[in-house]
Amino acid sequence: MDLSEIESLIEDAIPDSDATVTRARGDHDDDHLAATVVSPAFEGERLVAQHEMVYDALDGRMTTDIHALELSTYTPEEYDEYEN
């Protein structure tokens, strides 16, 4: 599955989100991915709920196209703090 397609799935499902998806183990492993997702929709949500939003956006692909996903979710404010 193309990384930009996964980013689009997430961004289309989670309001005002920005998703970056990479291969967690380099180019040789297609089904172990890492995703960073930033959205104001995460505000006030527990981490588990934030991750569930991303998994829901992937609509079953976690059992078919994606074997593992290292997931980091942030509100825009949290991401600004993380980056600085």
Automatic annotation (TrEMBL):
SUPFAM superfamilies: BolA-like (SSF82657). It holds the Pfam family BolA. It comes from the Archaea. Gene3D superfamilies: BolA-like (3.30.300.90). InterPro entries: BolA (IPR002634), BolA-like_sf (IPR036065), BolA/IbaG_stress_morph_reg (IPR050961). PANTHER family: BOLA TRANSCRIPTION REGULATOR, BOLA-LIKE PROTEIN 1. Belongs to the BolA/IbaG family. This is BolA family protein. The lineage of its organism: Archaea, Methanobacteriati, Methanobacteriota, Stenosarchaea group, Halobacteria.
